[in-house]
Amino acid sequence: MAWRIEENILRGEIDNRVRGRVTARLWFCGHEDRPMDILLQGDAEPDLHGHLITFTNPDPKPGLPQGLCLEQRGHAGHITASRKVKIPDVPPDRIHEYYKTGKRPPYHWGNVLYFEWFSKTNGCVVIEASYNLSISADAPTWELTPEEKAARDAELAAAAESDPITIVRNPDIDDGGDFDDWIPPTEEEADRDQERSEILMDRVEARMEREGPDADYEKILDEEITRLRKERGEPEPTPEQLEENQRRLDEMNGGAEGVLEGMEAGSSQADEWADGEWEEREWHPLVRRARDFSLRVHRDIEARGWMPPDVHREHPVAQLCGSLMCVGPKLAGALGHEGDWPRALFFTAHAIVRLKKALDFVEDALLAAECCAEQNLTDAAWLDEVMRETKSLACEIENIIAEQRRRLKEHDE
């Protein structure tokens, strides 16, 4: 599981003014005498190329995570200051007042800092927070050349046209070869595919919120697809590609609607998980374990009345239940049926991406459980057992991710 350290940071800076190197310093609240020193190979995303960014935390919590080394050396992950999220317009300690009345807390869309790196001492470390950001006003010290930008855009466009996998055929292999005869995409390529989809859906959701109940979903979706394609310099799609894209969008929308329904009410997702058709399938054991666990949590919450009717989706109990309900479908997409695992090699990177998404939902569930504990919203002993099982799921998912990364590494070598 990634280290999440944003709440303890007082201020910091990230410097990508030297190409191929990211340096950073972080000061922790209550430990300002010695900052964390970070030196990474690689670069940030284009919005930070050639820039120094400084930031401050408006509401830091004292503390220094135990076991976290103050000298971090490793590789840069995803680093950007352009990610859009919903930012509450009320202090965190007042949000529960809205939960109690079933009202949606007021919010606005804003940029957050996303700073991810992989260190030799602590593994994956992530900061994702709506800090006060300041990017150097000077001209960037370096930028991608027009040729490099064109190559990057072409690579992104090629990734976007895959369904959903960027496939490169080995020319030395005859057409009769099986999946393992194809050169598999890297984890980075799979992450870019996923990032593109998330950017699109975030933009659609933001516009739906702004335009209200009369918003035309199909029109907004079409406009945002066109906007994203133009931003990335992607060529005009052929009629065949448009037809294929529509098929993919229909599938994606159907899956998204199911997850949202599960997040809103919980019961529809629980019914789907419990139907006889699902029971007849021979899912991977971890999929079945996550499914059984999420159903048990949902039924316990329902039976004990911990989630009032028409509760807002951001209520901690609703988030706990909804997040756990989303773990199983993500695992099913990654692991499939028991007989399908391990997947052919060129599916490996995209399986890792789905596993990481499942892990995100597990982490969301743990955060929601902590909020439940702080506000005494459930039985303490029950919640302790739920948190233990949730952490155990996280450990199993991390082990599979590590195993699949080894497969890719062995192939590259």
Structure description:
There is one protein chain. The protein is 49% helix and 19% strand. The protein has a nine-stranded mixed beta sheet, with no helix packed on it. By secondary structure, it is of the alpha+beta class. It folds into three domains: 3-135, no CATH class; 144-236, no CATH class; 265-413, no CATH class. Mean pLDDT is 77; it is low at 158-181 and 251-277. It contains eleven helices and eleven strands. The chain has helices spanning 95-101, 146-161, 187-211, 217-231, 239-264, 267-274, 276-280, 285-304, 316-335, 348-375, 380-412; strands at residues 3-4, 9-15, 21-28, 31-41, 52-56, 71-88, 107-119, 123-129, 132-135, 168-169, 182-183.
Which helices and strands appear, and what pairs or packs with what?
Layout: E1 3-4, E2 9-15, E3 21-28, E4 31-41, E5 52-56, E6 71-88, H1 95-101, E7 107-119, E8 123-129, E9 132-135, H2 146-161, E10 168-169, E11 182-183, H3 187-211, H4 217-231, H5 239-264, H6 267-274, H7 276-280, H8 285-304, H9 316-335, H10 348-375, H11 380-412
Parallel strand pairs: 1-8, 4-6
Antiparallel strand pairs: 2-3, 2-5, 3-4, 5-9, 6-7, 7-8, 10-11
